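Re: beginner question about structure tokens

> Can someone show what the tokenized structure looks like for a real chain? I only ever see the sequence side.

Sure, here's an example I had lying around. Input first:
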Amino acid sequence: MIDPKPAIQPQQPKTSGSGTVKKRRFGGTEAQIRSALKFYKVMAYLTGAMLLLLCAELVARYAFGQYLFSGGTNAVTGQPFGFGFADAEPQGVLGGANLSVAVLIVHGWMYVVYLMSNFRLWSLMRWPFAKLILLALGGVIPFLSFIVEKKFHAEVEAELAANPQASKRY
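And the corresponding structure tokens:
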């Protein structure tokens, strides 16, 4: 079986202006960093998918005046309504669950958990604050979470491979 390699090759140690080698230190063990990376990856994909669903829902709502409903009664015909889009104004479905609002709420709470995963990874890697901002933007700009996740995943793997002595030992 072939042993997987990081996407980015390890870099040479950074030197300060005086020519001394600057030691890289992480905020936790390698296992803690890998756990945070896995949690971040899962949340990045879930939050990104929910953001795309949210964008589709907003287009349906504001471009076509439609909400996504499940159950209830059709307001015009009085027949049971199963699942699908209905008019927002005047109300097309009486009763039932407004899934458009559910998408908004679920994405909002997922984004909160996504921010926690960002902070955990950022603090364990001891990155500059600008990287935390870039990580956080992944949950509010469509498709960015997938791009940022791939970039930072490769960067974490490369830093762990290049600095095996940098992890704390407990």
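Each token stands for a local structural state, so reading them left to right follows the chain. The CA atoms of residues 13 and 19 lie 11 Å apart.
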